[in-house]
Amino acid sequence: MAKNKSPWDENDDFDNPWADNDVPPRNLKPIRSKKTVEVHFKWWWAVVAAVLLWLASGFYQVQPNEEAVVLRFGAYHETTTPGLHYHLPYPIEAVRKVNITQERSINLGVQEVQSVAANTFTESHMLTGDENIVDINLTIVWRIDDVKDYVFNMQNPDQTVRVAAQSVLREIVGQSQMMPIISGDRGKVEDETKEELQKVLNEYGAGIRIVRVKLQKADPPKQVVDAFNEVQRAKADMERFKNEAEAYRNEIVPRAHGEAAQRLQNAEAYRQTVVNKAQGEADRFMSVYEAYKNGRAVTIKRLYLEAMEQVLAGSDKIIIDDAAQNGVVPYLPLDKLNQKGGN
To answer: Bridge partners of 120?
Structure first.
């Protein structure tokens, strides 16, 4: 049914011939304007461009010092090496890059954990096996060894390494004496700490490798450092006195050994002399005895003459046999002969 219109609506009826009808004819389609078609075309191009950008976002570059872990819906998918790679765009897949060559370091012994009055206790104070307290500062250098384990098993790597290293170090110090740690056995502590800490991290599946462990400081606590220095000085004096005594011993003992050896050599020489002399006397006696058995009269007379020669050798008198007086020279300078015989 036609609507009531004012005369001023004729122009509108002319522009819209179906204005008097409630429903337009079904066999006619609405006519689209050129502006509507252009907007629709631009919208489709925008969608296509967005999809292309979304797909292009899957390209990623892994640097030579990195490795990347590809996550598909948050789960591990693969590990990629340096180079250009592609993954399904977010939120299907994501990439986490990790620097595997960078060395990270942690220092133990610098955090204050408790304060009592004027005394400050830190994590560096550790109890040794001989019930002494030692102040230790330790540096741990580590790097990533397995990217997958590091990404999925480690939430706070620095804190994990710190807690594990502190636990291992306290165990090793608790089984050691104070003096070896302070005086010079630091290499043993470093090696044992590195080995045990690596075992603990491997059990955690941390994907971390300990590069080196360096013991920066190992001293007695500040509260007892003066008393400790006194003890050290006393021990140094003890070592000095011990070295002096050792030097004196090294000087005296060889000298005593030399004198003892010399006396033994003199005694051996005297023994050899006495033995040789006795052997000579025995041989001479045996030779005289053999001669005596072969010619008793001659031997007796020779022995008698030798004995008289020895007895009269020191006498100042000259005895002439009566039977030989006829052959004595009338003038005989007996005093001269006596002097000649004495000489």
So the answer is: 115
DSSP result, 148-179: HHHHHH-SSHHHHHHHHHHHHHHHHHHTS-HH
Tell me the three state secondary structure of residue 40.
helix
Helices marked H in 9-130 — which ranges? 10-15, 34-56
Q: What are phi and psi of 249, to 5 degrees?
A: -65, -40
At 331, list the tokens: 């003038």
Instruction: Tell me the C-alpha distance between 96 and 70, whole Å.
Output: 7
CB 134: neighbour CB atoms within 10 A?
21
- The CA radius of gyration of the chain, in Å to the nearest whole number, is 61
DSSP letter assigned to residue 224: G
Indicate whether 6 pLDDT > 70. Answer: no
- State the Cα–Cα distance between residues 306 and 196, nearest whole angstrom: 100
Q: In which residue are the tokens 């292309």 written?
A: 52
Of the CA atoms within 13 Å of residue 32, those in its CB half-sphere come to 7
Is 329 in a helix, a strand, or coil?
Answer: coil
DSSP letter at 33 equals P
Q: Would you tell me how many other CB atoms lie within 10 Å of the CB of residue 94?
A: 17
| Amino acid letter, 218 | A
Question: What is the separation, in whole angstroms, between the first and last Cα of the chain?
Answer: 197
- The helix/strand/coil state of 332 is coil
User: Residues 281-296: pLDDT tens digits?
Assistant: 888 888 877 877 777 7
C-alpha to C-alpha distance for 291 and 300, rounded to whole angstroms: 10
Identify the three-state secondary structure at position 146.
coil
Residue 305: burial class (beta carbons within 10 Å; 0-12, 13-18, 19+): exposed
Residue bearing tokens 């004496």: 177
Kindly report, residue by residue over 29-53, the tens digit of the pLDDT. Answer: 555 555 565 666 677 888 888 888 8
